[in-house]
Structure of NADH-quinone oxidoreductase subunit B:
Amino acid sequence: MSDIKLAEAPPGIQGSGFFATSLDKAIGLARANSLWPLPFATSCCGIEFMATMAATYDAGRFGMERNSFSPRQADMLMVMGTIAKKMGPVLRQVYSQMAEPRWVIAVGACASSGGIFDTYSVLQGIDEIIPVDVYVPGCPPRPEAILDGVMRLQEIVKDEPLNRRQTPEYKALLEKYGFNTNG
């Protein structure tokens, strides 16, 4: 919030002050503090996510207390646990159904790199099929680590310009993963 400053009103205008900031900063701040997570949990990291959402850690103070189980109503995909290669197309479909802007957190060693499961049937990191914004290490990560990942994502969201999703770089990133950016 250091970028948003309370300024003095110009002479002749009543009031104690007004906010002076860019639209990018104001919208970024609103987005960062109202992330709606879509949990995609398959194993032990999902249990840690449940603990994170419980009263002890109070994820509501980060603006993410509303879990969404519909991809069309979520903007933060949290992939937790082992992702088998057969689940890859389902995960891609869930990601593609989310509206822009959307962000992804890979929670735990399995979602980040396949974990201890270096086998033919386990995806060796979800970044093989969808772009990832934040990686949360651990096997499984503690709730504090998951909240740290959310706070890191909030910093990314806060500083993201409004037109980033229309840039050629972002469209090239999505095309690298096989997503159509023409429509």
